Structures are given as C-alpha cells and as structure tokens.
C-alpha cells in the first residue's frame, strides 16, 4: 500500500503496509513548529505529554542511528510538541523550520485537484484517460478515478529492475513522465482496469499528466493555485530539479552501500507523487485541510473519504486506500520514504490528533524500512491509548 517512496527499501516498507491492510499487491492558524537551536527536541509548556513525546523522538533517534529529525504534534488546533533533533548537515544542529522532500502527502493533493476539476466540469473523473493520454496502453479503459485510487492495474515502475538500475547508477539525473510511463509499460498490467487494487507510483505519473493536459497548466502551478496559496502554505513548492531552498534538512542514506548525503538526489524519480519541498508546519496545515475538506464541497469530501475501494483485493470498509489516502479505522496515515528522508503522518479523525515526523538516516540505519513509522505510531498511541493506530 504505499505507500512509500523508497527504492531499495521500498519492498519492505510496502510489505509492512500490505500485511497490515491484508491486501496484495489544518487549519491555517496552526502554531509554527518550534525550532531547537541546540539540536535537541523541544516541548510546549503546559502539556503533560510534551516531554514524553520529546523523549520518544530522542529514543528512536538513538535506536535507529538517525542523523536528524523534525517533528510536530497537535491536538485539535493546539500544537503540543514540536522541534528538531540531530544534525543538518552533520556537525550543525537541525532546526524545525527546515525543508524536506514531501513524498506521499502530495498524492491526495492531486486527488483534491481532480475532484475540483470534476466539479467544475473541466474533466470527468470517470471518463477514460484516452481523451488526455491517447497513446497510453488501455487508455480507453482507465479513468482518472482509478489512477487516484490505484485500481488501474498499471505496473509500478518503481519495482522495475530497469528503473532501479538507472536510478542508482546516477540518482542526480531526472526522469520525464514519458520515461517513467515507458518503464511502467515494460511489464504487463497486473489486472483489468478497475477490478482490483495495487499501489503504483505509475498511477500518479499518469494522473499528474491528465491534470496538466486537461487544464493546460503545469502541475506545480495547479497545486500552487489550488492548494498552497489558499491554505497559506508559503514554504511548499513543486520542484522539477534537485534544487532545495535553505534551510533544509540534509538527507543521508546507505542504500547504495555507502553512507552518503542524498539531499540532492533528483526528486523527479517520483514525478507527481512526491516531488515537492515543504516543512512540517505546512504538512500539518495540509493534513488538517484534507481531513476537514476545506478545499472541497461537502459532497466531494464525503466521496473522497468514503471506502470506495472496499471489496477490491483485500481492502475493507475499515482498511482501505482511496484518492491517495490510506485509512485504518478512525485513523488515516502516510509514510513517505525517499533518498534518505523517511516520514510519517498519523491523523485521528475522532480526536483530531495529528503526528508528523521526518527523519534522515545514519550510517547504521536500516534502509529497508521507514524509520519514522514506529516513532509516529508510538506517539500516536501515547496520545490516543484507547484507539491507537493499527498500522
């Protein structure tokens, strides 16, 4: 289930989510995350759990040999903990306002724009994508709705050995949509369009291209106009090069067999599914808006959060993936992982508890897992002990 933007570590991360799901294949006035000038975690005065949260972050940093971390935790509108720990770059303290590669939280942004355009009559989410991508195989059978919910059957290019070979040979070189589509089509479809579920980054590449072709605007401009600007996400930006503005959390990884700075690995390896830069505070704003349906009509938001894929593969009404969001009962979650950045976001729809963290790997870190996931889950369990996340 995704739900990972990892490379070598992708199979292990996705396998954990697959097992958990049993499948086969904010408001704008949120308090800014507090910066930790000495590289240690910070706490919010007055909340009894803030120090416990900081202790969890520090403990997980040591257990997993992580280099740096930025995080934030909210109950409703109140931020109860947040800060930074570790180094960025090595030898200098990380700060909580540092930019990271956003990864998977970008995916429901595409679905939000899709629903907006559908409501405006610009495109029909149930019309075959042949209108916008006539040369793509089975374009007359695949719809934008299928792409948004990973039910198209298109093979995931990320698991294609040819993609892995190309990427690891030179991770600074970018990819075009055409190149990624070709890699996806090197292997046959997994199933007939709309008949099952299998998470695929290929679906997001195609969905992004459909949105661009339908509007005549680059995806970066669409997200700027329809997501970032309306929500006041001033530190978020879609990027098509390795550039990342200062201050940024340096990424480190050992997934190529040597410990190295991977900050400038080209994010277009995950074109339209994670190639944006952001901060923890902006991700919090986005997830709250996503949960509240701030950018959609009530009908559209209800449809977006409904278990529309239940019954496909082993998805159920309690555990499902739809419109770029993984659901587990009252919780929805995201676990981006790419090029030394591991992230997690948990949101409980009942208590409005939100946990976000991005971490970077150390020399002895396990690159075959999302190192932020257990950190986020432990904090979420601390805050909602009677209904902790199951994934």
From TrEMBL:
InterPro entries, per database record: Beta-lactam-related, Beta-lactam/transpept-like, Diverse_Enzym_Activities
GO MF: carboxypeptidase activity
Matching Pfam families: Beta-lactamase (PF00144)
Domain Beta-lactamase-related, first and last residues per copy: 54-367
TM region(s), chain numbering: none
Stretch forming the signal peptide: 1-25
Gene3D superfamilies per record: DD-peptidase/beta-lactamase superfamily
Keywords of the record: Carboxypeptidase, Hydrolase, Protease, Signal
Hydrolase found in the keyword field: yes
Record PANTHER family: BETA-LACTAMASE-RELATED, PTHR43283:SF18
Protein known as: D-alanyl-D-alanine carboxypeptidase
Annotated organism of origin: Asanoa ishikariensis
């Amino acid at each position: 289930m995704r739900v990972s933007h990892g490379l070598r570590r992708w199979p292990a991360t996705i396998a954990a989510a697959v097992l958990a799901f049993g499948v086969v294949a904010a408001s704008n006035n949120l308090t800014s995350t507090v910066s930790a000038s000495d590289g240690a975690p910070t706490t919010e005065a007055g909340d009894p759990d803030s120090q416990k949260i900081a202790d969890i972050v520090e403990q997980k940093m040591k257990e997993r040999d992580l280099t740096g971390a930025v995080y934030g935790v909210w109950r409703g509108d109140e931020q109860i903990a947040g800060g930074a720990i570790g180094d960025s770059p090595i030898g200098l303290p990380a700060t909580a306002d540092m930019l990271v590669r956003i990864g998977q939280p970008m995916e429901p942004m595409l679905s939000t724009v899709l629903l907006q355009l559908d409501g405006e009559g610009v495109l029909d989410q149930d019309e075959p994508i042949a209108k916008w991508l006539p040369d793509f195989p089975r374009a007359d059978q695949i719809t934008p709705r299928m792409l948004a919910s990973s039910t198209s059957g298109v093979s995931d290019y990320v698991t294609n050995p040819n993609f892995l070979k190309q990427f690891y040979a030179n991770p600074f070189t970018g990819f075009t949509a055409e190149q990624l589509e070709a890699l996806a089509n090197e292997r046959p479809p997994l199933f007939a369009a709309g008949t099952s579920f299998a998470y695929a980054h290929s679906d997001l590449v195609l969905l992004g291209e459909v949105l661009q072709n339908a509007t005549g605007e680059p995806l970066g401009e669409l997200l700027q106009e329809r997501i970032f600007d309306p929500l006041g996400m001033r530190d978020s930006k879609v990027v098509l090069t390795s550039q990342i503005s200062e201050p940024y959390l340096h990424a480190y990884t050992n997934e190529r067999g040597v410990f190295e700075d991977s900050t400038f690995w080209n994010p277009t390896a995950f074109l339209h599914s994670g190639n944006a830069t952001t901060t923890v505070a902006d991700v919090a704003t986005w997830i709250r808006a996503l949960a509240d349906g701030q950018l959609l009509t009530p009908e559209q938001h209800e449809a977006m959060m409904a278990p529309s894929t239940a019954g496909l593969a082993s998805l159920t009404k309690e555990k499902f993936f739809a419109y770029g969001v993984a659901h587990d009962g009252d919780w929805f979650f995201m676990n981006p992982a790419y090029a030394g950045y591991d992230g997690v976001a948990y949101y409980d729809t009942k208590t409005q508890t939100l946990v976000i963290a991005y971490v970077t790997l150390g020399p002895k870190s396990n690159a075959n897992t999302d190192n932020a996931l257990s950190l986020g889950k432990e904090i979420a369990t601390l805050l909602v002990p009677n209904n902790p996340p199951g994934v």
